[in-house]
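Q: What would this chain look like folded?
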Amino acid sequence: MTLSSAPEAPFGRVLTAMATAFTADGDVDEEATARIARHLVDHGHDGIVVSGTTGEAATTTTAEDGRILRVVKEAVGDRVKVVAGVGTNDTRHTLELARQAVEYGADGLLLVTPYYNKPSQGGVLHHFHTVVEAVDAPVMIYDIPGRAGTKLAPSTFETMAQWPSVVAVKDAAGDPTQAIMLRELGYAVYSGDDSLTLGFLAYGACGVVSVLGHVAGDEIRAMITAFFSGDVEAARQINARLQPALQAVMGVPNYGATTVKGALQLLGVLQNRAVRSPLLALDDIEYDALRTGLSASGLLR
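A: My prediction, written as structure tokens:
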């Protein structure tokens, strides 16, 4: 395979679900949030997802989500695609967020399976269809049963494949082989799990929506480029080299926003690692362990 024959990637190949920076007293830190966005653009990214899980969207208000999107769009301009996470477990709220995101210029929407209330597949379809029909924007569906409590069924994907604006799937369901089915249905498939990205590429994915990309964007891009250029061994070596960092960021119970903010502090991008309750910022022991893992992968210089 060559880069020219690689699967189409409507939102780019390397995206990160971006952290949201907060001040010490818990407000959205617009300047620091913009700094994270520029850091990602400068390190291998061609897409950013705002207000996802890693952006602590469960604890931000509708108005704050609008501020975050505006700040990031202003910071990166047209250099990358900016996808807005608008999914909630309330269809009316999701619709409000989707309309706001389109108004603020999002290049696409990320719609997660409604969480906690565990709707039927019919309920999921109704939820998604209500939003898709109401806004004019390309959509990436997010399948993450570990957080949402509901896994999307093949029949659900078959139905959504008939909706023209639903163009991609972020797959965090844990089975890279599902990419075969999703590709056959016409979706662009993005790995939603850093530990499985290389496997997803092998089964037809076009790229990744990462968390590790906060600190390893250049390396992840090099891995994907090597794979699509036919140098699978080089891609494997990069993947192996990133394992200590991956374990440090994703292999502990308190992962995601907490660890990437610690990592961004280690890189000097952030001045603090503040998160919103019920998350807790990394303590000094966790912070030191994170430093060790990133150093082992050569990401701290």
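The beta strands are 14-17, 47-50, 81-85, 108-112, 139-143, 166-171, 188-191, 207-210.
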